[in-house]
Hints:
Blueprint: H1 2-12, E1 21-26, E2 29-34, E3 42-53, E4 61-68, E5 75-77, E6 80-85, E7 88-95, E8 118-121, E9 127-138, E10 148-154, E11 159-165, E12 177-179, E13 183-189, E14 193-198, E15 212-222, E16 227-232, E17 244-248, E18 251-258, E19 277-280, E20 285-294, E21 311-314
Parallel strand pairs: 2-13
Antiparallel strand pairs: 1-3, 3-9, 4-8, 4-11, 5-6, 6-7, 7-9, 10-13, 11-12, 14-15, 15-20, 16-19, 16-21, 17-18, 18-20
Amino acid sequence: MLRAIGFLLFSLLPSLCLAQSCSFTATNMSFGAVDTLGGGAVNSTATINISCTGALLTSPRILICPGIDAGSGGASSAAARQMLNGASSLNYQLYADSGHSLIWGSNNWPYPALPPVFATNLNILGFVNTSTTLYGSVFGGQGAAAPGSFVSNFTTADTYFIYRYSTDTSCATPSGTLAGVTFNVNASVAANCLVSVGNVDFGTRGVLSANVDATGSVTATCTAGTTYTISLGGGLANAAPTARKMSKAAETVTYGLYKDTNRSQPWGDATTPGSTVAGTGTGAAQVLTVYGRVPPQTTPTPGTYTDTVVVTLTY
Length: 315
């Protein structure tokens, strides 16, 4: 009787060795608000959760090759995936490491980067729950991206996850069971503008008996499609656009700032209707010339005459 029971137990043991089965879920990767004019990258992470079951009473190693394709936004090159907002794109990339040196690729896309190798061991009860981090970075200097919400969706058709029992340490030629996850990568781009100026320097002059002309500049860099208006204040004397004052103590030199080379269109602010300059951003720097003129006038005593004009860009 004892011999029969022992044989029965032995014959049941092989049926306890189950084929491995893994399921995956992933969180969305949100970059939040991205300043595309700031020049710096914006980083984020997502989590891929892994749940596997398999052989009991042993600890087999399961090799997982979690490939991720380009997603619905596509990829502009091997170096950059894209999120889309209509026809506008925003470049980013997914990585397997926090240093952003290993692009997270797939065996099922046309670029060199492969899936990272991920392996886990089932516990003695035949299951394991674990996770791995997906790193992402939106590249800086993308002012051509139009303001709005950007997204790239990943379905199970875009996530080529293959797993099997194995001691392999490479995902170059994976084989096994196929699975996948769904998630999205998203970001928002706000309208933004940067402004810089070049001074108007009339140089060294003698008697002010004729027009003295000089130019300066205002450079506007705005996100694509962002409308803006640039106004020039009245200087320290808060004067009209053509009657600003450079000063040395109580003495002054009258001058004007204009929008055109003929010095016929004054450049001022909202207090002088029609004197501001409007534009629409392209993401690139737009240089606007400021035309200055000192008209003939009574010449004050020699010295350095200056004024400070506030440049205001409204968008």
